[in-house]
């Protein structure tokens, strides 16, 4: 029980705090404490002088609201408030720094005036009549400077002066711009070393042509390899597209670190890299020079592990792949540290630290490596906290995790969960970290994410030698939610795309739920209308339909998926030419097709757009008609595969191909023309016209076959930034009968091409010469161009 005196003091304090207060004064001061007119903030204050307020808490709450309201107007640079209390009442003191209304912006340029005043003003993002202060003008100057940098003037200096009219509450500003000189980095050079080989384009190309087993095991340090790691780029042939060659001083620290890391990963552990110097005779032909003193290239001497208490060196040693005599690449040293941390982490140990200690022996050019371990302790997962989700539902994150509350900590599962979240492409940042709790053996897992914009609206032009020119408009949301408004954050995917062109009109509505019924089961729905006028000169074709699919990963087979898909579609062959053959005229009209397909796929490629290694294979049995209904009875099998091998000099060798056969059954007397097989054109045999290879009618018009085989061998090598040179060989045939693999009427071609990987606009241009062909097919033996926007299978 409390003592009586304590109770009295508590009651007195409560009465004192709760008693009514009088607002005796309201003051407006600047940051120096100087008082000035309060007219600018009068509308935002909750009280008047002489007003009686029930209690102090009401005053505190109200002035906090006043401050928030003033800040939200963006009319003030600084806003704060406090109260002074004495026996006579309360004085409210608002500390306010006003912004002023911007009335004019003047641009003074010293130089050639490469950017007009109008464009400078636009770059500043200032607007007349906005409220502005020193911070506003400083940010505007930074934006103007960046505009000049993008115009190849990295040394432009931008200063500003303001003129304030306090009486009228206005301000005008003058920006003074000293443009400096245009600067183009035509060459990035490395000096002060004797290990870097600077190969020209011809030498790189010739080296890449040499088979790998003939080149030996020696790896040269090339300037090209180093430049690939840098943000700063030298001017290239396509710099008017890529903007390579623009100098950005903000990249210096990154590039110095990247160069140093590159050499350390080649075993030069003592390497020193200086900040670059710019050297030029004329500003449009500048060199960026880095001085590199690489020192000795170390090889691994003795390897030891110390500090462990729970496990033996024999248990930990297999994770260290370095061996005595290997080049002491720092990256591989760190992989050893990571392997040891992983060994402990996968067995429940949290906060295990591994520090590699180096003992160099310069006289032998070797370095001893000791991995010193601080073990940490075993921990269990208490709670999993999702941090950073605003639009995404928590379940979208939690269902990708392979760690659960109550389990022993497992570092491997934690890293796997991170990777699965990154692969969603919903987040620009993902990090999972264990956080200690009040219990020494329990940890919370904080899943920190930063959401990215997943919606996309795009309008553009498509260009292809097959379907000519088309325009499209597309609205896509990669993180859709069908059950809420706004429809974002449910992890679904939705897209609407409309295309109109000289040879095609399309409309596609696509929806995908990757966790159907809260299982790792992907539901796909696609409604479409496709009108094609490029299949033949003798007819046009229209497809209207819907496809429904379920896809599930195949257990115990990495990168593999199994799908079952049902498609219902109506085909219409129309605008049949009056002089068309009976084989084509008999195809005219509508036909309904109801089908099931069962694709099995495995995709281990390192990239989906321009792969450099890995394999993608899809085998698809399919059947239509019969108990499924419709007017088309057929069955078939399609096998598609592509394999990629990386070669020296970033060259890539690729073999891809397809085998397919289709046949009819039941009430059907033939395979309809829209299900027959064709080859030729930019996606298959590039030395031949689109769909030109295969059986023909009496008018020499392609009518397709029931068996096709196609294969491409392609070799590509980079020649400029994002530009690759390609050489290829295509071979294939189409036979009239099902399961007919007679190769006697094969066609083949060879050619060269260019691949331009501009983001959002990948362009493939090829020129191919037919090698084997048939005169009755209308071939002349002349080469032909093929061009296409998009990526190959």
Describe the structure.
The chain has 13 helices and 39 strands. With 793 residues, the chain is an alpha+beta fold. The protein folds into six domains: 19-98, Roll (Ubiquitin-like (UB roll)); 100-178, membrane protein fhac (Ubiquitin-like (UB roll)), CATH 3.10.20.310; 185-293, Ubiquitin-like (UB roll); 299-377, Ubiquitin-like (UB roll) (Roll); 379-451, Ubiquitin-like (UB roll), CATH 3.10.20; 608-789, Porin. The strands form eight sheets. The protein has a 17-stranded antiparallel β-sheet that branches. The longest helix has 17 residues, at 56-72. It is globular. Mean pLDDT is 86; it is low at 8-17 and 200-218.
Brief descriptors of the model:
793 residues, Ubiquitin-like (UB roll), 17-stranded antiparallel sheet, 4-stranded mixed sheet, 13 helices, 17% helix, globular
Low-confidence stretches: 8-17, 200-218
The CATH architecture of the largest domain comes to Beta Barrel
User: Which topology of the largest domain does CATH recognise?
Assistant: Porin
Query: What is the CATH class name of the largest domain?
Result: Mainly Beta
What portion of residues belong to β-strands?
35-45%
Largest sheet: 17 strands, antiparallel
Topology, element by element:
Layout: H1 4-18, E1 21-29, E2 52-53, H2 56-72, E3 76-86, E4 89-98, E5 100-110, H3 117-124, E6 131-132, H4 134-150, E7 157-165, E8 170-178, E9 185-191, E10 196-197, H5 201-209, E11 221-222, H6 223-228, H7 239-242, H8 252-264, E12 272-273, E13 277-280, E14 286-293, E15 299-306, H9 313-316, H10 330-345, E16 349-350, E17 353-361, E18 366-374, E19 377-378, E20 380-387, H11 394-398, H12 411-423, E21 427-436, E22 442-451, E23 455-464, E24 468-480, E25 492-501, E26 504-513, E27 522-532, E28 540-553, E29 560-574, H13 582-585, E30 589-597, E31 600-603, E32 614-624, E33 634-646, E34 652-664, E35 707-720, E36 723-735, E37 747-758, E38 761-772, E39 784-789
Parallel strand pairs: 1-4, 5-8, 9-14, 10-11, 15-18, 20-22
Antiparallel strand pairs: 1-2, 3-4, 5-6, 7-8, 12-14, 13-14, 16-19, 17-18, 21-22, 23-24, 24-25, 25-26, 26-27, 27-28, 28-29, 29-30, 29-31, 30-32, 31-32, 32-33, 33-34, 34-35, 35-36, 36-37, 37-38, 38-39
Helix pairs in contact: 3-4
